[in-house]
Amino acid sequence: MTSAPAESSPEAEALPVWSAEEWRALLTGPPEGAAQALEQAARGGMALAQLYYGQFLLDGRGVSADPRAALHWFHKAAQAGLPMAMNMVGRCFDQGFGVAEDPAQAVPWFRAAADQGLDWGLYNLATMLTLGRGVAEDKAEALELFRQASAQSHAKSTNMVGIFHEDGWVVPQNMRLAAYYFARAAEGGDFRGAFNHARMLIDAGQMAEALPWLESARAGGHARFGDQMAAWLAAREEEPLRALALQWGEQGRA
After folding, report:
1. pLDDT in tens, 205-216
2. What count of Cα atoms within 13 Å lies in the side-chain half-sphere of residue 77?
3. Can you give the three-state secondary structure of the chain, one letter per residue?
4. How confident is the model at residue 9 (pLDDT cuts 50, 70, 90)?
5. Residue 17 in contact with residue 45, Cβ under 8 Å?
6. CA nearest 143: which of 159, 124, 164, 125?
7. Degrees (nearest 5) of the Cα angle 200, 206, 209?
8. What is the reported pLDDT for 10?
9. What is the pLDDT of residues 151-186, one digit of tens each?
10. Rounded to whole angstroms, what are the CA distances from 68 to 78, 99, 149, 246?
């Protein structure tokens, strides 16, 4: 699916070699200047610049958003062997970024990235297998992939391992293990993990400990997730949770 890296060309050899500090300064500096520098390096054949320039194009950062062009550069970087670029080609097919949405086309790209051990590739392939999206459902393989990514401290995968234990998918239901993985996911910065960790704390009667994690989940999540959380809180019997839902509603109207 991916070809071997091309042999170096005189143009590629003439490209600057950026240190880690220079990359950091470039990517955290003014986006317009970064986009220009990345485009120049990408056109010269620097695979990592192709990956980052594709992300800038996808996000519209420092340059007009152009998902189709983003996919072009992701594909170039994937052909050079970058696992994250393979993953991003998969994301484009999965989400319809710059191309017609086609989950079945996304799966081989996610698998190529996963085969290289990339945490996001493992997570995305596992998600497709869990949902049976673009591929036959296989929760057993999905759990193994989530575990591999979790071992790399991938917080979203750690949260999914918790869900498997909570719902009894593939493995026997085990709420103690579910709580353990949700706590790890929350500490790793996953907003869904923070919410699930809070749920476990509430069920254990630890309301004071749960409330900050609910706030963390809301701060880290997108608007739709925040609305879902607010509806869940409003439907609860516990007064602190209903009060929090009311507080969030007032903040939203302010």
Report:
1. 999 999 999 999
2. 31
3. CCCCCCCCCHHHHCCCCCCHHHHHHHHHCCHHHHHHHHHHHHHCCCHHHHHHHHHHHHHCCCCCCCHHHHHHHHHHHHHCCCHHHHHHHHHHHHHCCCCCCCHHHHHHHHHHHHHCCCHHHHHHHHHHHHHCCCCCCCHHHHHHHHHHHHCCCCHHHHHHHHHHHHHCCCCCCCHHHHHHHHHHHHHCCCHHHHHHHHHHHHHCCCHHHHHHHHHHHHHHCCHHHHHHHHHHHHCCCCHHHHHHHHHHHHHHHC
4. very low
5. no
6. 164
7. 90
8. 37
9. 999 999 999 999 999 999 999 999 999 999 999 999
10. 15, 7, 29, 43
Determine the length of the chain.
Answer: 254
For residue 69, what are its two tokens?
Answer: 């062009």
The amino acid occupying position 51 is L
Place of tokens 């254990």: 204
